[in-house]
Amino acid sequence: MIKSKLFAVAFLCINFLSAQDYFPKNDGVIAKNTNYTAFTNAKIHVSPNQIVENGTLLIKDGKIVSSGNAVTIPKNTTVIDLSGKSIYPSFIDIYSDFGVEKPVRQSGRRSGQYNPTRTGYYWNDHVMPENNAIEKFKFDDKKAEELIKAGFGVVNTHIQDGIVRGTGALVALNRHQGNEARILDDKSGQYFSFKKSNTSDQSYPTSLMGSMALLRQLYLDANWYAKGNIETKDLSIEAFNRNKSLVQIFEAGSRANVARADKIGDMFNIQYVILGGGNEYERIDQIKALNAPLVVPINFPDAYDVENIFLTEKLSLEDMRKWDQYPTNPKVLAENNISFALTLHAIKNTKDFKTNLAKAIQYGLSKEKALEALTSIPAQLLGKANIIGSLKNGCYANFLITSGDVFDTRTILHENWVQGQRNIINDFNKKDIRGHYPFSLANESYEMTIKGDLDKLKAEIVSNEKTRGSKISHSDNWVNIAFTTQDSTKQEFIRIIANIDDHKNLKGKATLPNGSKTSFIAKYSQTASENKETKSNHGKKEPTKTFSQLTYPNKAFGLKELPVQETLLFKNATVWTNENDGILENTDLLIKNGKIAQIGKNLTDNSAKTIDATGKHITAGIIDEHSHIAAASINESGHNSSAEVTIEDVIDETSIDIYRNLAGGVTTVQILHGSANPIGGRSALIKLKWGENADNLIYKNAPKFIKFALGENVKQSNWGSSETNRFPQTRMGVEQMFIDYFTRAKEYDTAKKSGKPYRKDIEMETLAEILNKERFITCHSYVQSEINMLMKVAEQFNFNINTFTHILEGYKLADKMKAHGAGGSTFSDWWAYKYEVNDAIPFNAAIMHHAGITVAINSDDAEMSRRLNQEAAKTIKYGGVTEEEALKFITLNPAKLLHIDHRVGSIKVGKDADLVLWNYHPLSIYAKAEKTIIEGAIYFDIERDNELKEVQKAERSMLINEMLKAKNEGLKTQPIKKNEKQALHCDSE
Amino acid sequence: MKYFTIILALIFCTTSGFGQQTPAPKQKNPIAIIGAVAHIGNGEVIKNSTIVISDGKIANIVNADEVQLRLSSDVQVVNATGKHVYPGFIIPNTTLGLVEIDAVRATDDKSEIGGLIPHVRSLIAYNTESKIVESMRPNGILLGQITPRSGRISGTSSVVQFDAWNWEDATVKTDDGIHLNWPSPFTRGRWWLGEDASIKLNPNYQEQIAEIVSFFNGTKAYSEGSQSPTNLTYNATKGLFDGTKKLYIHVNDEKGIADAIGFAKDNQVKSMVIVGGEEAHKVTELLKQNDVPVLLARVHSLPDGDDDDYDLPYKRAKLLVDAGVLVALENSGDMERMNARNLPFYAGTTVAHGLTKEQALQLITSNAAKILGIDKDYGTLETGKSATLFISEGDALDMKTNQLTHAFIDGRSISLETHQTELWHRYEEKYKTQQ
């Protein structure tokens, strides 16, 4: 057994392990090293839950031979004594772009590009399963050094570009050998995202829902191809099918997108490993239910710089809470037994990783879970637990030598071994001399404090209450110190050279300015603050608590607890039934179990909460047939037909518009696709249950709808003069496009019904549903010619257009609409914003209504939708509609058009208790909604609104105060952001 | 159905063919409107009024319960018992008549190029035959301040009435004010294009203000000198310092408003108005101290931030009125022209959120007239003022009852027909004949 200085070992490793057996060698002899290296007397974290005190780690040929207390050390072993030190498996980053450059976007926006740029591949350029990170991989030594310093040993890298990104590579950060050693797996997984590639300008998909639809169709096509049904070559699909057996990793990037990614996987029995956004804690139950393994970033936001009051007013409570709450995310995931790995992804400066990790632990993440998330879990997720992620026999010798607990910020990372190759970060033979050193020289006493980073020490020397200018350096167990004399104007220095003894005391000599030399001794002691910290570290520290509230959704006006169904008895109200009973005065209304239970006089119910509604009005909840609120995207404009996309995929339950709509008495909205293309996407029919998650907003077993569109928008008239390359560009073309699609859908449906195999196509499935009268069309429409055309096309294919929306010239062909059986959902008084609405008139609703058409008034606008009662009332002014009928335009009639009138739209025993309590006549400009109720639960209450305003004011002020404190403590801050969503209309992308 | 028939009856009296409405001729005989609830526009109401209109002016307005007027035989009597009379509503800061169809560039005359162009005058581009302008009248909006847009100083506005053959006839007040778009104190990236979303203090803010100061100083120096050669921009600006023109400063945020007030004072601007003023409620003291009125941004709009009260845009007027600030309503922004006819309902909404109906009415009548400097003749139903008023079946601030039977501009009985009512009648007729 040879005991030697460690650097010698390192030297040997480099020389003997770098050559490969079968490679010729012309610069010397082939010398094989079969020696072992043993690390003894260390606290070894073999795995997060297996810790060996005073253990031995034996390695050979870059791998672990054995570890534990009973390791037999062979004779040909170099032994390194690690008394007092700890050994951990090094960290793994499962989501990295190490050594693989992301393609840079080439051009700015030109006119839309609808075709792919490639041939022989999938029809969409953003699908690139044929890409392999290994082909672009170039070991980045500088970055490797940075990662090694942060404790990482292995990264799983891939090309972070495109929707399907191809395979990644699992690479060890081995700086001493070549790729032959580093590459642990050249196809370590297949990668996905919702984001398009920088390498192509192909328009499709322009939206999140388009990305989702594209992925679904790809799975179907791959399956069809695998069965040999496609005769032409598709290199993308072939690669995709080959990559199926690998781990599938999805960049979602936010809590909501994690759920979206998982939903796609569920459809095809694939469990993705999903990269989250760090905000999963906001709806942890939803995330837990997904049962998906996660990768989470820890790029916790800095405090905002809130010194400028004007700027601070633009900062939202939502963003302030992020600063306060994000550090709790790992803890919350761990507490809910969600399997997750941590990643460096999204952290701008690798150095921040350690700080943020410590913060996560400070906020309650257990150290064991932290270690799992950096070692065993990523290894398991990659199916590589037998070679990385622990110090078990046979694994790569990837480990860290530390002065103690790896997650303690004060712990020194001495070495990071990768594949048996040593990387010295802070020489553990080098003593940590940070501390307090009083000394005296020439009858003067000094107080010296050595502090700073180990490789960048600073000395603070004080004498006679005056701080001296000083410099310190430390190498090979010697320190050099120079400091100024009492009279700083003289620029004279006292120089010291001293050796460090085993107790960190400094002994040597000092040279005074006059050249005389004298002996120097300074005794080490802990600094006061160090002392305190060490002590507090021993005691069990309480995790740091957040200051702010967690609400649903987690922003202003969010609710701490979700509203629940109540039994409510309204006394003495004016009840607008929308039924034969008409408007009932001085009437009681009982709601129970989410339904309307009783309507009448002198009702009683002991279990009910009684609400005096004297002088007040109750109507059915308002239904907006045409809305674009609460969606992450509205238009998929990359194709002229996008029947494959659905708004249900992209509901944003955090949109404040939900709350604002509730405050205007709205309970149900149809979120429609936009009007960028003739065949748009499928709708989402939702109830505005503020606080619930996206899935819980959607009507169960709702009738199916799709948006169609006509006119200027679909022919891109107002998109600028360069957008002239997408068919159709005229109303003539629009007709032919419909005929083409329905002809093909009919053929598709025939093939499907024939029982023979067919290529499943989501777009055609959707159109076939229309032909089979299982899906209804709401068509954006303006001028009479095109409206008439679409009815004729529908009749040709033997179905009906359910609803024409906008339908501003409906009054010109009300008779034809009536004959066809179409309904009209229109604006009260919008016009003149483009050429095709020049003949739009506010009397439209009245004329269509008088012609016997089911008429609704809609908003298409987040502002107007919160006062649709006023819009309905305009039909009284414009055309003399009765009050009772006017109210139906925003309640019962849209319910009929949406085929949900058996559930909502009127006040009838047995229907859903979706109601609004108004302080005044509901069609008057003077009316305000006081309570908005959905299925018996109060989702808006004007009194609660006032309370929330007060509570929020206090919370904002408290958070601002805490952020000011953080800034004063010297923490980093970031400039204020203003969260704003583009208000979405039909024309929005 | 009742309103419906009355309207129809009226229409058939006044309709004359299709196309734009023919401006009404000068008033010949005196007219007396009797029995109506008269909303004076200054906060007062006469429940049973007699209003006599003669030579385009209100010759007399009295409480019929107290004063019986003797009407001469040539007086045409309009019995308006149970109906309501209001002064014609006024829409300030509007681009009515400057753009016909938003999406058709050829119809757009609202924004001239050049940064400091006070000499550019909206009046001469104002299209009296606009279909959108005529659609204002059936809702009671009879006057407007036609205002150019864009640039730092976008030009000069004028006040017009909405029933005229040409812009000269339409003029109520020529070149009433200059419109300054105040620099934004903040800047931020276009986040939707992936730029940094953080909001910062505008680094060029002081420089942008200095540019305006220097322009104003230039005007003052020019006025003192020989004024030769002529400088059109300075000529157009002189009025700010002799009180013949007002300075309308378009600004919404608290800091900008405060800075704008300081700026106007420091530069001896005689009369200034804040336009927009979304955060004016945060600086009411300052506004009051300096006697600065506000043309308040569109009531029917979304709150600016997620944290704002859902009803903030609805209750801003109340916050300002309660603090004693002189306020009128404007509606610039998206689809502003076609939405301008909803002006009365903006006022109505402020009632649901705290004001009284008569206070709300002031926001679109007397207050607007005062701010625009036309209150000598317009804005209230008072003896001696222009007979620019209308009769509504019911409360004109509520769309359910805003049903005009008559409207007068300077005593002329104007048509309440529009391109839209004509299409309505035409197609009603079509379906009737089909039955």
Strand content of chain B: 15-25%
Structural class of chain A: alpha/beta
What integer is the average pLDDT of chain B? 93
Instruction: Kindly identify the CATH topology of the domain at 622-709 and 761-904 in chain A.
Output: TIM Barrel
How large, in whole angstroms, is the Cα Rg of chain A? 35 Å
In total, the number of strands of chain B is 18
The residue-averaged pLDDT of chain A reads 93
CATH architecture of the largest domain in chain B: Alpha-Beta Barrel
Q: Give the CATH level 1 class of the domain at 622-709 and 761-904 in chain A.
A: Alpha Beta
- What is the CA-CA span between the terminal residues of chain B? 20 Å
Main beta sheet of chain A:
8 strands, mixed
Name the biggest interface.
Answer: A-B, 72 and 60 residues
Count of alpha/pi helices of chain B: 14
Give the number of DSSP strands of chain A: 46
* Oligomeric state as shown: heterodimer
Helical amount among residues of chain B, as a percent range?
Answer: 25-40%
Describe this structure in words.
- The complex is a heterodimer of chains A (989) and B (435).
- Chain A has 989 residues and is an alpha/beta fold.
- Among the domains of chain A are: 435-538, Lipocalin (Beta Barrel); 622-709 and 761-904, Metal-dependent hydrolases (TIM Barrel), CATH 3.20.20.
- Chain A is built from 26 helices and 46 strands.
- In chain A, the strands form 9 sheets. In chain A, strands 1, 2, 3, 4, 5, 6, 18 and 19 form an 8-stranded mixed sheet that branches. In chain A, strands 29, 30, 31, 32, 33, 43, 44 and 45 form an 8-stranded mixed sheet that branches. A 6-stranded mixed sheet of chain A has the order 9-12-13-14-15-17.
- In chain A, helix 18 packs across helix 19 and helix 18 packs parallel to helix 20 (784-796).
- The longest helix of chain A is centred in the last third of the chain and has 27 residues, at 942-968.
- Residues 1-17 and 532-539 of chain A have low confidence and may be disordered.
- Chain B has 435 residues and is an alpha/beta fold.
- Chain B folds into 2 domains: 22-87 and 394-416, Roll (Urease, subunit C, domain 1), CATH 2.30.40; 89-377, TIM Barrel (Alpha-Beta Barrel), CATH 3.20.20.140.
- In chain B, 29% of the residues lie in helices and 23% in strands.
- Chain B contains 14 helices and 18 strands.
- In chain B, strands 1, 2, 3, 4, 5, 16, 17 and 18 form an 8-stranded mixed sheet that branches. Chain B has an 8-stranded mixed sheet with strand order 6-7-8-9-12-13-14-15, with helices on both faces.
- In chain B, helix 9 (312-322) crosses helix 11.
- At the A-B interface, helix 16, helix 23 and helix 26 of A face helix 1, strand 11, helix 11 and helix 14 of B.
